Amino acid sequence: MAGGLREAIVDWYGVAARDLPWRRVGAGAWGILVSEIMLQQTPVARVLPVWEEWMERWPTPAALAGEPPGEAVRHWGRLGYPRRALNLHACARVITDDHGGRVPSTYAELRELPGIGDYTAAAVASFAYGQSHAVLDTNVRRVLARAVRGEEFPSKTPTAAERTLAESLVPALDAPRWAVAVMELGALVCTARAPRCALCPVADQCAWRLAGRPAYDGPARRGQTYAGTDRQCRGRLLAVLREAHGPVPKAALDATWSDPLQRERALDGLITDGLAEPLPDGTYRLPGTTTGSPS
DNA sequence: TACCCGTGGGT
DNA sequence: TACCCAAGGGT
Question: Which intervals hold domain HhH-GPD (predicted)?
Fold first, then answer.
């Protein structure tokens, strides 16, 4: 029965899969690693153009490692969570220095790289190297919550039971295809907001649908205000540094946010995080970048 | 563990 | 319009 679920989802993937550049033969482990980090909490549509630009500009880890970290932040653009750009740059340097320039192939080695957690390590080992791992992202968690457990949404963080279930579903043959197929189902059909059950290949065996799609009754799932937060302030400050082509006077940063206390706190945070660099003359820049560096 | 970390599009 | 949330990770 688990086999029936897997087979139906993998067959569906065969006809419904999107043609994404990092899935093509020849994307390479580096391209796949870059895509996975860019896709952390960020929709595919926004990642696509940035990934293309990165791959053209930095086709190998060594190419990125040869640049200052600030250039990675600059070309991250508006993807959000810019520390991921620093993480990728740090990955490139570790890969270049310690792995002979080749993206490591084992889960354990990948897991040691900065910004690579359980999901990303499993994803890269699977998609780049064909290995067999349980790949448990938000899409998979939602599909399994519904199809197997009969609940509309998974818990906030993965539970041991979820991992056990995900591992029990890893097929003996072609585990990466199962992983990408069930992720794709969650992304295109079994969506968080308005699931398209009419298009679902496992609608007839989905516990949640068979139970009449009962409404979620667990604890409140989120609640994030953004306006007025330090995050928004940091974003404003970093946008100025990104778009400038040289050191930025403090006044230009001050103009982005009215509350001076919060502004200073945010700027200090950016510096602490390595996303901004103060210069002796009182100006600021992206870390390691030089004046007039080409865009 | 709960919170922090950006951004923009869909509903 | 306001809110939800998107291939998470670090602390």
Answer: 38-188
Q: Model confidence at A295, in pLDDT bands (50, 70, 90)?
A: very low
Nearest nucleotide, CA A79 to C1': B7
What residue is closest to B1 (Cα–C1')? Answer: A157
Q: What 3 state SS string does A144-184 have?
A: HHHHCCCCCCCCCCCCHHHHHHHHHHCCCCCHHHHHHHHHH
What is the band of A245 on the pLDDT scale with cuts at 50, 70, 90? Answer: confident
Residue A112 is a catalytic residue: no
Return d(Cα A88, Cα A69) in angstroms, integer: 9
Q: Which residue is nearest to nucleotide C4 (CA to C1')?
A: A193
Indicate if A230-285 has the same CATH topology as A19-129: no
Q: Å between A113 CA and B10 C1'?
A: 34
The string of pLDDT tens digits covering residues A122-160 is 999 999 999 999 999 999 999 999 999 999 999 999 999
Q: Which of A7, A36, A56, A151 is catalytic?
A: A36
Name the residue ranges covered by the structural domains of chain A.
Answer: 19-129, 230-285
Indicate the CATH number for domain A19-129: 1.10.340.30
The C1' atom of B7 and the CA atom of A1 lie apart, in whole Å, by 41
CATH of domain A230-285: 1.10.10
Does the CB of A164 sit below 7 A from strand B?
Answer: no
